[in-house]
Write a structure and sequence with these properties.
Layout: E1 8-12, E2 15-18, H1 19-40, H2 49-68, H3 72-92, E3 102-109, E4 112-119, H4 128-157, H5 164-205, H6 211-240, H7 244-247
Antiparallel strand pairs: 1-2, 3-4
Length: 249
């Protein structure tokens, strides 16, 4: 069964390098490579990798435009970045070798020797540290964008008021903004980690045929979770960036 916490592979200068860190670095390198390949092949008539990613980016842009309106130019890069990074991180964890290639770690519990497989690679989104960081970046960026559109005083006016009732509601809303960090991160982490556990369990029972339906299911989950996280982030950004004139107040 997959460990709840990421496994340590080695250390560099006292800094721990876990299997999820290695996988995240691989995803970063893949994204950088795709960006370089995409920009080198840009043309009016899509071809090659541009033919794959241009329709996807157009769909994401149109979706942002429908919800965010004139704020699209600022919100879209965050929406697309979250979606593509999480999607690739989720998908790369489904590749052969992830969770199954590694080294055996021997430990003793109550005099009984236990062997535990430490995988060299593991999906980054199955590490709560990464999903928590994504949730933190999402919420902090949302508030920065809100300050950009409302100004600092206008931003404070969303949560502070001389009216005691409105002040209570504003402080409650601000508290809920902090809760979003954990709700976004726990939703993503829980679904991806649960998928890892299922695949590890089924793979241990029957390594060839049985996991195929679950791999197909987890592929759908990978897309849905990437879309849910990025869509929620985009909606939160759009709502909090709404000015008093746009809201009619």
């Amino acid at each position: 069964m997959a460990s709840l916490s990421p496994e340590l592979i080695f250390e560099i200068g006292g800094f721990p390098i876990t299997n999820t860190v290695i996988s995240t670095i691989i995803v970063d390198l893949v994204i950088i490579g795709l960006i370089i390949a995409f920009t080198k092949q840009l043309s009016i008539i899509p071809k090659g990798i541009q033919r794959i990613f241009e329709p996807l980016l157009e769909y994401l842009y149109d979706t942002t435009l429908q919800i965010a309106g004139h704020k699209t130019l600022i919100i879209f890069p965050w929406f697309a970045s979250f979606f593509l990074f999480i999607l690739l991180t989720n998908f790369i964890g489904l590749l052969p070798g992830f969770g199954s290639i590694g080294f055996w770690e021997v430990s003793s519990v109550h005099g009984e020797t236990i062997r535990h497989l430490v995988p060299l690679l593991r999906a980054g989104t199955s590490d709560f540290n990464l999903t928590l960081a994504l949730g933190f970046v999402s919420v902090v960026t949302t508030h920065i964008i809100s300050i950009h559109y409302n100004g600092f005083l206008g931003y404070l006016g969303k949560f502070l008021s001389l009216n005691p009732i409105n002040l209570f509601i504003g402080l409650l809303e601000f508290t809920l903004e902090l809760v979003k960090v954990f709700s976004l991160s726990m939703r993503l982490f829980g679904n991806i980690y649960a998928g890892e556990v299922v695949l590890a369990t089924v793979g241990g029972l029957a390594a060839f045929i049985a996991p195929i339906p679950f791999l197909m299911l987890e592929s759908i989950v990978a897309i849905v979770q990437a879309l849910v996280f990025s869509m929620l982030t985009m909606v939160f950004m759009s709502l909090l960036a709404t000015t008093s004139k746009e809201s009619g107040h």
